[in-house]
Structure formats: structure tokens, C-alpha cells
Design brief:
By secondary structure, the chain is an all-alpha fold. It is built from 5 helices and no strands.
Length: about 110
Amino acid sequence: MPRSVNSVASRARRKKVLKQAKGYFGRRKNVWTVAKNAVDKAMQYAYRDRKTKKRNFRALWIVRINAAARLHGMSYSQFMGKIHANNIALNRKVLADLAMNNPDAFKAIVDKIK
């Protein structure tokens, strides 16, 4: 009985990886072994950085809230403590957006918690 290899599936698997490597530089885009390693590494970075992106945005929001709170004579920690004490249910994303794009509304919140 002749040897049976599923070359259709093998080719499809390789094509899938080479398609994911589209746009890479040099041999990373068209040589199977190099492209496979590059795509694997890219997937690892993508998985890791989906988590990192959440941390980075939270840090950005905190910086923006802190800057806006200090304009009104309050530190970030004092501001957030008073926000929670007064049961104002606005998260950091919304507060940072108000601080950047609607300073009057942010000032109204500061006046309410003082």
C-alpha cells in the first residue's frame, strides 16, 4: 500500500502561516521556517500586549485625573478617596475623559465633593 501523506492539509497550514506573515520584511514573509517562527513570536507579543494595553490605559487615565485634580488644589489620592466617599460611581476612564474634554463638568464634580 502506498504511503499516504495529507499534503492538502500541510499546504493549507503553511499557506495560513504565510498569509499571517504578509507584510513582514525579508525572508520572514516567504520562507516557511522563518515565517513560522516570526508569526509564533508575533502571536506571543500580541497576547502579552493585549494585557499590557489595559495597564497602560489605566495609567494614562490616572495621570490625566491627577493633573486635572491638581488644578483644583487636590491630589489624585485625595480626589479618588472623596469620589468613593460620596458614592459617585464614575470610573477612571470617564473621569479622565471629563478632565480632558469637559473641564467644566470636572470642576462641578470637584465642587460637589469638596
